[in-house]
Each structure stands twice: as C-alpha cells, then as structure tokens.
Design a protein that fits this description.
Blueprint lengths: L13 E3 L8 E2 L22 E5 L8 E4 L11 E3 L6 H87 L1 H84 L1
Antiparallel strand pairs: 1-5, 2-3, 3-4, 4-5
Length: 258
C-alpha cells in the first residue's frame, strides 16, 4: 500500500525534463492544491501543484507540476512516489488494456448504432417523401372525385329531364303502343305456329330418314341371306354330282358281280 504522507524532494524522487508530456490526472483530496510545504519549483520558479496520475502503469502515483493559470504552463514534472512494483504495473497495464478494449468495443458499438441511426434516418426521410407524394396523390384523387361527383350530378339532372320528356312521350303515344302490342302479340302467335309446323316437318323428315335407314339395313340383310342361299344351292349341286358319281360306281360294281 502506498503511503500518502507529504514528503519533500529526496533521492527517491524523479525529475523529468520539460519535453515530457504530463500524464492524465485524477482528483484526490489528500494530495491536491499547491505544494507550499515543499521546496520544489517549476520552470517559472513558482510553487508547484500537487497532482495524482491516472494514466496506464503510473496510475495513483503523486507528482508535482506547473500550477500557473494566467501564463502558459511549463512541462515541469517531478514524481513524488517511486515507480510501482512490476506485478502492480502489470496489473495496471492489464486493467488499462481491458479499459481500452472496452472503449474500442463501445466505439465500435457507437459506430454500428450511428450507422443504424443513419439508416433509420434515411428510411424516415424516404417514408416522409413517400408520404408527401401520397398526400399530393390523395389530394389530386379527391379533386378528381369531386369533379366526377359534379359531373355525375349534372348527368343525373340531364337524366331526370330526359325521363320527364320520355314520360310525356309515353302518355302521348299510349294508343300507338296499344296497337303495337296487339300487332306484336299476333305476330308472335303466328311465329309460334310457323315454328310448330317447322318442328313437325323436321320430325316427319327424321322419321322418313329413320325408315329409309331401316329399309337399307333390311336390304343389306336380304342380300346377305341371298348370298347364303346361293352358297347352299351350290353345295347342294356339288353333293348331287358326288351322289351321281357314287351311284354310277355302285352300278358298275354290281354289273361286275353279275
């Protein structure tokens, strides 16, 4: 454990030239303010400021630095605490490495989130453009619909006028319509009679065609029967000749026996 008791410059304290960059610091109530109780002076020959380093393997080490505020600070650095032991330095280095890795990971996540935000913003802008186009198209559609409704109203008025004129014309032509209906009914009746007669004629024609087909079929059957009879007669004549030959042979055989 490091002792935080005040101590002056000694042989264990280190001095670093003004070219060295001062480390980052952390607030420490036990070691802060001006080092008025110490003899160390900065390059301005002024009292130094007590600070605690918070930078890599030097984290927690006390040092003295320039305390000027009105004029540019010098790079005076004087370590009060000696270097930490090697195990502690390795632990600090590992902790700072983990901290830097975490910062890199956080930075990477921030980049990913930023890219996602950019994508979301672009999509939002695209949606806003689409919404504007939709609003314009919708307004145009509403205007066209209103125009169509106005035209429909005018058309309905014109149809109403035409209907009134047609009703008047129907009243004036009522007698003519009655005669026309009578003539039409008579013509439809005659048309039905002609259609019925035509159907009867077609039916008779179909019957005649059927009878003709039957006659043709019967004629073909008779022709086949006639051919069969001819074959049978031929067979009979052939058998007759064979029988006559057999009778002659029997007569000859009888004559030889006699």
């Amino acid at each position: 454990m490091v002792s935080w008791s005040d101590s002056g410059s000694s042989s264990d304290a280190e001095s670093v030239s003004s070219e060295v960059q001062l480390p980052a610091t952390i607030l420490c109530l036990e070691w802060s303010g001006l080092a008025t109780d110490l003899s160390s002076r900065c390059e301005h020959e002024c009292v130094c400021q007590k600070l605690v380093a918070f930078d890599s393997v030097d984290s927690g080490r006390r040092f003295l630095a320039c305390a000027q505020k009105n004029i540019p600070k010098c790079s005076y650095l004087e370590w009060v605490d000696p270097e930490w032991p090697a195990p502690l330095k390795m632990s600090l280095a590992r902790i700072w490495g983990m901290y830097e890795d975490e910062n890199k990971l956080r930075l990477k996540d921030n980049v990913v989130h930023a890219q996602e935000n950019v994508r979301v913003v672009r999509e939002k802008e695209k949606m806003e453009r689409d919404l504007r186009f939709f609003k314009v198209g919708f307004a145009q559609m509403v205007a066209e619909k209103e125009q169509a409704l106005a035209q429909l109203g005018n058309t309905q008025l014109a149809l109403t006028d035409m209907k009134e004129d047609l009703d008047k014309k129907k009243i004036s032509d009522k007698s003519f319509t009655t005669i026309h209906q009578v003539v039409r009914a008579k013509a439809e009746k005659e048309r039905d009679l002609i259609k019925q007669e035509r159907d009867n004629i077609m039916k008779e024609r179909d019957n005649l065609v059927q009878e003709r087909d039957n006659l043709v079929l019967e004629r073909n059957v008779l022709k086949q029967e006639e051919k069969k009879l001819e074959y049978m007669i031929g067979d009979l004549f052939k058998h007759k000749e064979d029988t006559k030959g057999k009778i002659r042979k029997l007569k000859e055989m009888l004559e030889e026996f006699e």
